[in-house]
Specification:
By secondary structure, the protein is an alpha/beta fold. The protein has helices spanning 3-17, 20-27, 47-68, 85-88, 131-142, 161-172, 186-198, 202-210, 227-242, 263-269, 282-295, 302-311, 316-332, 339-352, 359-370, 374-378, 384-401, 405-411, 417-433, 435-448; strands spanning 31-36, 39-44, 74-79, 151-155, 181-185, 214-218, 246-251, 273-277. The two termini are 41 Å apart. The structure holds adenosine-5'-diphosphate and magnesium ion.
Length: 450
């Protein structure tokens, strides 16, 4: 057996054991570089991947290889080559233009750091959708400025970027060695800069940001096209970086997708750790709801929570919004609302999820995701490898665009409407039980809505 064949076996087994998203993230660009004298060496693309393998997958990989090499004593991990951050996450990412900002309750904010103490790690739920970003944040807390600098967290609206960034700040604020911490939004940074230029107080501005122990800049995508801000941010960054001071950024998209930023700044963003936050799966959504209920002392039945978690899938802010709405109406009605009323209240939320795509885009995205040709999706072939992607495409046409069953059948080799009903129902049913299918479809959706 060659190393490639052995690794393929490991990959096949791992793929069954972990989620599609994790598999795509961690096992891309890995290989066995050698196996001799009882030691198997796995080549991985980055330091962070190495750590992840050691902590999360080592035991499983060891066991799989040992089945074929009973003499195996250990498995080691080796950096493959100089890694670029894009390699890290070539998988689909969710890009959104929505510029909703969290409304702070001004009073609670610490004047010196700009941090809001309500955001902590204790009330931050971790699931597969954010575990990478969370793990990176935890490493930073242990060794600020020394492991991943900068940390660049990106993800769609309302998925917890601000919460995580502020939690990092709040936690490090307890560390006595870090005396000067600042959280700011890129937009604020920019406004302050303009003000400083106007007031001829640039020295103060520079001093303020360059003496920090920790700088957190939220929503850095706002600097797009703002040359002066970019220049100042670049120098601030360098000044802090040279002194091993930690810098954390968030953005609604990865650095390479932020338009109109200087290359030198982009390469700084990409120079540390890039971690995405995607969308929480059903169990995590439920866990978040439960944690919010106990935080806010809201009593809502398990069934309603389940219903909210299964209908509001996009982001945590919406999830919280739905919960608040339900809780408020319920208490106004003396906690007497029945299931029917609850569902009526929540209808607003589910309806408000805007659909903004086309059948063509959905079919293209499915074709890209599963790596099958569009013609193979839409013609009559019954080959096994095309059946699942085709069913997913049909399902998405129905769920995202509410197309009629006959028109869906029409698009797929003029199939009968009963075929489209069958496909949609099949996927829908599988989604109720199969979490990895859920993630798979979420990833396709990310491609659709890029
Ligand atoms: P973003 O900055 O990505 O738009 P936020 O950090 O503002 O999102 O999160 C939106 C809301 O969801 C906030 O109220 C936040 O506390 C909550 N939230 C986000 N992620 C989590 C999580 N993992 N666990 C618990 N609550 C979360
Ligand atoms: Mg935010």
């Amino acid at each position: 057996m060659t190393n490639e064949e052995l690794w393929q076996i490991v990959l096949n087994e791992m793929e069954l054991k972990i989620s599609q998203a994790n598999f795509a993230t961690w096992f891309k660009e890995t290989s066995i570089s050698s196996i001799k004298n009882g030691v198997a060496v796995i080549a991985v693309p980055s330091d962070f991947a190495k750590e992840w393998f050691v902590n999360k997958y080592h035991k499983t990989i060891f066991e799989i290889i040992k089945k074929f090499f009973p003499d195996l004593k250990t498995v080691g991990y080796l950096l493959k080559q100089q890694q670029t951050p894009q390699d890290f996450k070539k998988q689909a990412h969710f890009i959104t233009q929505n510029k909703n900002q969290l409304q702070f309750q001004e009073l609670k904010i610490d004047k010196k750091t700009n941090l809001n103490p309500k955001y902590t790690f204790d009330n931050f739920i971790v699931g597969s959708f954010n575990e990478l970003a969370h793990a990176a944040a935890c490493s930073i807390i242990q060794k600020p400025g020394q492991v991943y600098n900068p940390l660049f967290v990106y993800g769609g609206v309302g998925v917890g970027k601000t919460h995580l960034l502020q939690a990092i700040g709040n936690k490090l604020n307890q560390n006595e060695k870090l005396t000067t911490i600042k959280y700011t939004q890129a937009e604020k940074f920019s406004q302050e800069l303009v003000q400083a230029i106007r007031n001829k107080s640039m020295d103060n501005f520079k001093e303020k940001y360059r003496k920090l122990d920790l700088l957190i800049i939220d929503d850095v995508q706002f600097i797009t096209g703002k040359n002066k801000t970019q220049e100042e941010l670049f120098h601030t960054f360098n000044s802090l970086y040279d002194k091993n001071k930690q810098i954390v950024f968030s953005s609604d998209r990865p650095p390479n997708a932020i338009p109109l930023i200087e290359e030198r700044l982009r390469s700084r963003f990409e120079g540390g750790m890039i971690a995405d936050i995607s969308h929480p799966d059903f169990e995590t959504r439920l866990a978040i709801l439960k944690s919010k209920c106990s935080e806010k002392e809201i009593k809502i039945s398990e069934e309603i929570l389940n219903w909210i978690a299964s209908h509001i899938q996009k982001n945590i802010r919406e999830l919280e919004g739905a919960l608040n709405k339900v809780a408020a109406t319920n208490s106004l009605n003396g906690n007497s609302l029945g299931e029917k009323e609850f569902k009526k209240i929540l209808k607003d939320f589910t309806c408000s999820m805007k659909k903004n795509t086309t059948p063509q885009k959905i079919i293209e995205s499915v074709s890209n995701f599963y790596d099958v040709k569009i013609i193979n999706l839409t013609d009559k072939t019954r080959k096994k490898e095309f059946v699942h992607p085709r069913q997913v495409a049909m399902y998405l046409l129905r769920s995202e665009l509410n197309l009629s069953y006959p028109s869906i059948g029409e698009k797929f080799g003029k199939r009968d409407h009963t075929t489209s009903i069958h496909s949609c129902e099949k996927i829908k049913k599988e989604l109720e039980e199969n979490e990895s299918l859920n993630e798979e479809i979420n990833m396709v959706k990310q491609l659709i809505y890029v």
